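Honest question from a wet-lab person: if I give you the sequences of every part of a complex, can you actually get the arrangement of the whole thing, not just the pieces? Trying it with mine:
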Amino acid sequence: TQLLEQSPQFLSIQEGENLTVYCNSSSVFSSLQWYRQEPGEGPVLLVTVVTGGEVKKLKRLTFQFGDARKDSSLHITAAQPGDTGLYLCAGAFVGTSYGKLTFGQGTILTVHP
Amino acid sequence: NAGVTQTPKFQVLKTGQSMTLQCAQDMNHNSMYWYRQDPGMGLRLIYYSASEGTTDKGEVPNGYNVSRLNKREFSLRLESAAPSQTSVYFCASSEASGYTEAFFGQGTRLTVV
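Yes, you can. This is the full assembly:
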């Protein structure tokens, strides 16, 4: 079984602080995605990274894919209460097909005003 | 803009009862998936269908069956519900490539008592 470890599981911070969420595996990903999920809703895609060393930015969110394609991070600058939610990383491992994704455990982020 | 539609949204079953969760997508996607989400465990793949007419087991298939009725519809059946199947169930669809976005329904919250 290919595992994807996500940390931390919980983050509670004040508005304006920075934070980083990590996603790690011992296996190589062909691609990795980050999703955000609101209560009562399904996950919604934030970004897909494919190339080792790739960095993508989405407003205050910065996503990095490790050089070896075994890890990724999500960094939020100057967090706002609207960033509160569940963040999930999901990887497609090399050798899998048909869009099968393995999800991390998720990070519950709470940003206090 | 329906996307992925799941029914029902909530369900309470008694141990041993059976039920079918329905899922339909209107994006002409080839692949469809059923996940379950439990606290601290992210989303785990139950079954998937790479294309119409094919289904395969995911990470946690025991106690479930699926039917890919046509390209649009993918149902999940619990033949004899158990308390361990209390969870939130998500249906998703995507193109076959692992690089593409998975679109999720709003989920079915199932409680087995």
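Two things worth pointing out. The mean pLDDT of chain B is 93. The longest strand of chain B covers residues 87-94.
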